[in-house]
Structure formats: structure tokens, C-alpha cells
């Protein structure tokens, strides 16, 4: 652990989101999940919520979210401060992480905030480097999860995808160089500390009705994040 850093704010933030479309500039986040891991990849907690995109929900045939599912869901602005606290000091991890980052950057830009250049780990790029080609599995998250024997999960839900991505990271981590350097860089970054964002109450977070909580990966509202 780095001097002066608490274990609770140092490690990895595995992120996945569902959106109303493919353009981070024109479309909005409609569901978000963050799974926190310590530097040894031990799960610390998870955060997930549906988000009111203030417009059409987009491709329901992909993400399964209907307008009525968003009743009571917060806007992004209501969870933005809490999300900053979750991400601060951590390496950002995702499957095609550049896409997730682009949507987060765009959402914060709408609030007048600029995210720092966070160190990243992309499990899709890791799979490509490891020789994960079109056959027999391919590079999609579903394909890479199947390649490591992970089948009991919920694709195209933010929490299901984040959990699968965390499993991929754990599978490949022993062969990945430079993780310690990424952790050190992430721990030293300066993050915005806005005073004008609402402090989101945990009660605002709205999970999908079919998301199963894991006792071994408690939601951050009950954990130590």
C-alpha cells in the first residue's frame, strides 16, 4: 500500500454502463455499475443504479430497460458526487474501457467538471493481446467470459457486466506487467472536488429488480467504500 493511502481508497474500480445509444456526445447513461477491488483484487463493494436519462431509454432490445423501470431513478447529477468518491484514487477497469470512460467524461462535462486522465486497464485489449481472436470465442465480453468458464451471469446489465469484467481481470492479472505502476499513478491523481453537486443519498440508488446482491461483494452503501 502507498504511504498515506487507506486500503479503502486504493485499488481498482471496475466500471460498466448501459446507454441510450452509441454516441457519448448525443446519448446518455441509463444504468451504471462500479465494482471496487483492492490492490490484490479482493472485492470491497459494489454500486449500481438505474439512471434517468431525461429522454428516450434507447435500445431496450439490448439493455432490457423499459421507461417504466426508471420510476424513481436518479439523474446522473444526483449520483455524480458519490461516483467521484468511488473512482478517486483507483485504476479504471472495463471491457472496452474507452467507451465507458467517454460516457463518464461526457456526463461530467455536462455538469461543468473535467475528469482526470485516469490509468486504465481494458480487458478487451488484454484478451486481444492474449490471442483471443474471432474463433472460437471472439473479443466480446460474453465470449471472453465463456472462454474462462464463466456462464452464470446477466449480460447487458451494468452489474452483471462489471462482475464478469472483474472476473476477467482476476484471470489475466498474474500475466499483466505494470499493474503496480498504474496503481501508484492512480493514487496520486488530483480529482475535482465540486462543492455544488448534490450529495446523493444512498436511498436514491435504484437497482434492477433482477439484480442479485452478493454477500461476498456487498453494495457500497453497506460496505466500506
The total tally of domains equals: 1
Radius of gyration, CA atoms, in whole angstroms = 17 Å
- Indicate the CATH architecture: 2-Layer Sandwich
H-E order: EEEHHEHEHHHH
Q: What's the CATH class, please?
A: Alpha Beta
Spatial strand order of the main sheet: 3-2-1-4-5
In total, the number of strands is 5
Please state roughly what percent of the residues sit in beta strands, choosing from under 5%, 5-15%, 15-25%, 25-35%, 35-45% or over 45%. Answer: 15-25%
Counting copies of identical and different chains, the oligomeric state is single chain
Describe the structure.
This protein has 225 residues and is of the alpha/beta class. It has a single domain, classed as Nucleotidyltransferase, domain 5 (2-Layer Sandwich), CATH 3.30.420.10. The protein has seven helices and five strands; from the N terminus they run βββααβαβαααα. It has a five-stranded mixed beta sheet with strand order 3-2-1-4-5, with helices on both faces. Helix 5 packs across helix 6. The two termini are 16 Å apart. The N terminus and C terminus are likely disordered.
Characterize this entry briefly.
With 225 residues, the chain is an alpha/beta fold.
Task: List its traits.
single chain, 225 residues, alpha/beta, Nucleotidyltransferase, domain 5, five-stranded mixed sheet, globular, disordered N terminus
Amino acid at each position: 500500500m502507498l504511504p498515506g493511502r487507506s486500503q479503502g481508497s486504493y485499488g481498482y474500480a471496475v466500471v460498466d454502463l448501459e446507454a441510450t445509444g452509441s454516441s457519448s456526445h448525443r446519448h446518455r447513461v441509463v444504468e451504471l455499475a462500479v465494482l471496487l477491488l483492492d490492490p490484490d483484487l479482493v472485492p470491497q463493494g459494489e454500486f449500481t443504479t438505474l439512471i434517468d436519462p431525461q429522454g428516450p431509454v434507447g435500445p431496450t432490445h439490448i439493455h432490457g430497460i423499459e421507461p417504466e423501470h426508471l420510476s424513481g431513478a436518479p439523474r446522473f447529477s444526483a449520483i455524480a458526487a458519490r461516483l467521484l468518491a468511488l473512482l478517486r484514487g483507483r485504476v479504471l477497469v472495463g471491457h472496452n474501457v474507452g467507451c465507458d470512460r467517454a460516457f463518464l467524461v461526457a456526463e461530467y462535462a455536462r455538469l461543468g467538471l473535467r475528469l482526470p486522465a485516469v490509468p486504465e486497464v481494458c480487458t478487451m485489449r488484454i484478451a486481444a493481446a492474449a490471442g483471443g481472436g474471432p474463433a472460437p470465442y471472439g473479443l466480446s465480453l460474453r465470449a471472453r467470459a465463456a472462454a474462462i468458464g464463466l456462464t452464470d451471469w446477466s449480460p447487458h446489465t451494468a452489474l452483471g457486466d462489471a462482475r464478469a469484467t472483474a472476473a476477467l481481470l482476476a484471470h489475466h492479472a498474474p500475466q499483466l506487467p505494470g499493474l503496480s505502476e498504474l496503481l501508484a499513478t492512480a493514487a496520486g491523481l488530483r480529482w475535482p472536488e465540486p462543492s455544488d453537486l448534490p450529495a446523493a443519498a444512498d436511498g436514491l440508488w435504484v437497482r434492477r429488480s433482477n439484480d442479485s446482491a452478493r454477500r461476498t461483494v456487498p453494495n457500497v452503501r453497506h460496505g466500506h467504500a
